[in-house]
Please model this.
Amino acid sequence: MLRYLYTLIYYLCAPLLCIRWIYKSFKPPQYREPMRERFGFVARQKQQSIWFHAVSMGESIAAKAIIEELLDKQPELNIVVTTTTPTGAQQIIEGLGDKVTHHFSPCDLPGTIKRFVKRAKPKALVIMETELWPNWLYHMQQSNTPVILANARMSQNSADKYSKISSLSQSMMGSLSSVLAVCEQDASRFVQLGVKDERCVVTGNIKFDQAFDINAANGYFPSWNGHHTPIWLAASTHRGEDEIILSAHKKVMKQLPHAKLIIVPRHPERFDEVASLIQGHGFNFARRSKTSTWSDSVDVLLGDTMGELMMAYQLCDVAFVAGSLVPIGGHNMIEPAMLSKPVISGPYVHNFQEIFRELEQAGGAMQVGSGDNIHELVVGLLKNQERRESVGHQAKVVVEKSRGALDRTVKALEPFL
Model:
């Protein structure tokens, strides 16, 4: 009953979704292309495929790692990948090219998903993390198509929300053929919500196994290279966080006048907005994308390019992982940890709760309760090289000992191929 009500509401909202996609087509322009794909009008596959679905950049990176391993073992596999966002699409298109077929994800309407499945011909659907759509799952179950959640996460906050619609969530969870959970706590929550216990296995977090490319021989910002300049980075910021970070940097500069800040917004459509905020705070700043602005003397560097975050992490001494000062849930702190960078996060880390807990317990990460004391942690780490290196080393140790999830995931997927 709830699925029918959900579907009715979705139909009523469909015109608004179209307006939203048209609006987003102006920035960034990548949204312009897939309108037909959102309603399942995709190229017909000549043979059965394995359908992978990833929402955005983080999920796409993990999906790419799995797909590369699978294609190494079985080059003949026909793989279709759907993503929800342009940043996710970029990861797949640039990383896998013509090895796979990419489409933007179809919306969750019965006719749309039937049309997409008829054309894509999936014999299995692999969903990265926890992107669960009622009509997708219902149609997959009706057509006897296995659905596997890979690198599956279920925070307590999400579990509580699913439990409020228990009849719908139990139906959805019961349709899953396999859940490859990142940890025991996530597995337990999936079982409590209705996944059969024998279908739930802990494989670990694939993100620990990612191979990170750091390109560009000249580094992220040549003006600061080799100058022993104290640098901290605010990575993947969201609206509401930039002002806090910029205010913290003013306090940092009072104690360390030569300290520099790199601020990298999560979404490209906010680059100009954040540039205005930096200017409004009175900082002398440069933009990564404009070499004409580069100078040794700038206080802040705006990271207004895509796909270069690892280079920024490499340049910095201390990494603040954003999406955690506002209730987004945090972003991937494995990336700086792998580079032996001390990790700082805000109070909202529910998307990476277990990873952050491991890093924090090992002494490789620290958490601030609000924006007020970010500068204290940053200054303390920038002033004390021995402590900074110790914290960064502990962070990398956690990453190294947690590897192996990718192999376990690929092995668990093989029976469905």
Observations:
- The chain has two domains: 34-205+404-416, 222-401.
- The chain has a mean pLDDT of 91.
- The chain has 17 helices and 14 strands.
